[in-house]
Design brief:
Length: 342
């Protein structure tokens, strides 16, 4: 061959991840070919078989353009793992009618070894990624278990998500849907200053509202217009360097209590389905912790407050009295108590 490339199959495209024989490898690295499309790469993927082009210029105009203009004959061989095409090898020659069935046989045998090597490497990366995600969930679980104060709990949660997902900014809101008000609004991540404090109606009319109504996650890729987003967010998206958005619901016993929204910058990657699943797991943990913290707070209030009047009860009187007596002793002050029969 005069030049060659290794191409891996993504979601609707083949991407060149390596090659040889090119004047400038950086020029072709990352180059993508839409699949399906009017190109020989699509033939290889859809047929799962090798394809030979004796004269490229007679069939595909793409070969008339740089950096492919030197190619006159072409051989594409699929990389197949477990009966699934995961990519292809492409060999190029400056001479027409160069490749034969013997070339195809040799390259196909080589492609089998390449497919195994690539699959093993991908499996290793997935294992490393899964370990990192498991460690992240463990850290977040510890935060949720060992933090009693609700505000501290929520802040630790968004900070951990921003650091470990990773995400440029994270927003968590808990809502009172019956009263149309926001209970808690917590932000984290490097770009948290880009998040403007929203009103309930703005959240309800946007992606967060859709998530709360449907009780399922919503993903909005970067550089897109999502009809579920509010006009306010759409106008500010480029202004605030807002790329991909992923929102997941917080719900407890089938009742919506809030949302977690993660946002990346325009120059960062889109979120993947794996990120969606990961955030759903975090949200389910968080919803239980939030509800437990709320119940703990209610119990604390009931333990020290008279329900009928909302005034501190006898137990709280003695607790405060003890603190005041200790303070008076510590500073050498006198202490008086006034009792009123209401």
């Amino acid at each position: 061959y005069d030049s060659a490339s290794v191409q891996l199959l993504g979601d609707g495209y083949l991407e060149i991840v390596g090659g040889r024989g090119w004047a400038d490898l950086d020029e072709i690295a990352g180059l993508r070919f839409d699949v399906p499309n009017d190109n020989p790469n699509t033939e290889v993927v859809e047929r799962g078989q090798a394809v030979i082009l004796d004269d490229t210029r007679g069939k595909y105009p793409e070969f008339l353009k740089t950096p492919h203009s030197h190619i006159r004959s072409w051989l594409g061989v699929p990389l197949i793992m477990r009966e699934r095409v995961i990519g292809m090898l492409a060999l190029d020659s400056k001479s027409p009618n160069f490749y034969t069935q013997e070339h195809t046989r040799l390259v196909t045998a080589f492609a089998d070894h390449v497919a195994i090597a690539i699959s093993n490497a991908q499996l290793f990366e997935q294992t490393q990624s899964t370990l990192a995600e498991t460690e992240m969930l463990y850290r977040i679980a510890r935060v949720l278990i060992h933090t009693d104060n609700l505000n501290d709990l929520l802040q630790s949660l968004v900070d951990n998500v921003a650091e470990n997902l990773p995400a440029d900014r994270v927003m968590l809101t808990t809502l009172n849907l019956s009263e149309h008000k926001i209970n808690q609004y917590v932000v984290g991540g490097p770009g948290k200053n880009q998040i403007m404090h929203a009103k309930f109606d703005e959240l309800w009319d946007g992606l967060s509202g859709w998530v709360l109504r449907e009780l399922k996650p919503a993903f909005s890729p970067k550089n897109t217009v999502d009809p579920r987003e509010s006009d306010y967010v759409q106008k500010r998206r480029h202004e605030t360097n807002c790329g991909a958005i992923l929102a997941v619901p917080l719900f407890h016993r089938d009742e919506a209590i809030g949302t977690i929204t993660v946002i990346n910058r325009l120059d960062q990657e889109n979120f993947s389905q794996r990120h969606v699943e990961l955030m759903e797991t975090i949200a389910s943990q968080a919803a239980i912790a939030i509800e437990n913290a709320r119940l703990f707070g209610e119990n604390q209030w009931l333990a020290t407050t008279d329900e009928l009047t909302g005034i501190n009860n006898r137990r709280h009187l003695f607790k405060l009295g003890h603190l005041e007596i200790e303070r008076a002793r510590r500073y050498g002050h006198s202490l008086s108590a006034i009792m009123l029969d209401i």
